């Protein structure tokens, strides 16, 4: 499966370097794993020996606090300031170094396994307003086939996933695989244990789908990519998010 990532624009992330099996999986050669904590998120990045990265970004549920500052060995990393209208690209990367799906004006299909409580279709329609890429929506098992950019969106009552310790404390998680500067695979998981009303659920769907397109967070709460999606004032991206997509693609 794939993995994903993001760093909030609001706080400096905390980085703790560990090694060993990642997210319950075993590899012939063990990855080096970095765990970042930032406002409202826990991000796990595993760098594989072949140079690929597997990233899990967990959006914490309402009221959940990120862990306190780690002890010895912790490294404070300043985020790079490369925003457009308050929006950031993946990992706060800048210019030609921004991570993206391959191809000019790519099409990304969101394959919906969630059910009626999660308005994935409505969020896909909004993201498809971007002139930088095409966003498609399809029902379960409806990826056109190998070679297409398809992002599975699933909803379950998760107990343990996304590099976080059980019991689960996140409402949504985007994970992706990255080779160089190219996203090669992505998945979204939404936790039904934190299901809210339709509008709040759409904020979460919009938030995680934005990450899957290559966006980080937005510093303004008039975007669904605000670091705490349910505190956003809208179910939609704002102008900065669309402008950042234009700059990335």
Largest sheet: number of strands, sense, barrel closure: 11 strands, mixed
How many whole angstroms does the radius of gyration measure?
Answer: 16 Å
Distance between the termini: 25 Å
Strand content: 25-35%
Q: Note the total helix count.
A: 3
Helix and strand pattern: EEEEEEEEHEEEEHEH
Q: What would CATH call the architecture? A: 3-Layer(aba) Sandwich
Report the top-level CATH class: Alpha Beta
Structure description:
With 249 residues, the chain is an alpha/beta fold. The protein has a single domain (14-248), classed as Collagenase (Catalytic Domain) (3-Layer(aba) Sandwich), CATH 3.40.390. It is 14% helix and 31% strand. It contains 3 helices and 13 strands; from the N terminus they run ββββββββαββββαβα. α1 (120-127) crosses α2. The longest helix is centred in the C-terminal third of the chain and has 16 residues, at 198-213. The protein starts with 13 loop residues before the first strand and ends with a helix.
């Amino acid at each position: 499966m794939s993995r994903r990532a993001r760093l909030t624009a609001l706080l400096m992330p905390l980085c703790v370097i560990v090694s060993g099996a990642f997210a319950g999986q075993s590899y012939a050669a063990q990855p080096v794993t970095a765990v970042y904590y930032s406002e409202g998120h826990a991000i796990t990045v595993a760098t594989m020996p072949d140079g690929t990265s597997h990233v899990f970004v967990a959006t914490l549920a309402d009221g959940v606090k990120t862990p306190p500052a780690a002890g010895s060995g912790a490294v404070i990393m300043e985020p790079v300031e490369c925003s457009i209208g308050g929006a950031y690209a993946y990992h706060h990367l800048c210019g030609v170094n921004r991570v993206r799906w391959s191809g000019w004006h790519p099409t990304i299909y969101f394959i919906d396994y969630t059910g009626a409580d999660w308005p994935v279709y409505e969020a896909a329609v909004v993201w498809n307003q971007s002139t930088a890429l095409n966003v498609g929506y399809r029902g379960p098992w409806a990826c056109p086939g190998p070679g297409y950019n398809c992002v599975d969106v699933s909803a379950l009552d998760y107990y343990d996933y996304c590099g976080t310790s059980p019991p689960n404390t996140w409402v949504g998680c985007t994970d992706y695989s990255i080779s160089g500067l190219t996203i090669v695979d992505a998945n979204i998981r939404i936790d039904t244990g934190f299901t809210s009303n339709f509008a709040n659920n759409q904020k979460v769907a919009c938030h995680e789908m934005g990450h899957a397109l290559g966006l980080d967070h937005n510093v303004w709460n008039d975007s669904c990519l605000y670091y705490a999606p349910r505190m956003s004032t809208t179910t939609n991206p704002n102008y900065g998010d669309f402008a950042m997509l234009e700059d990335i693609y």
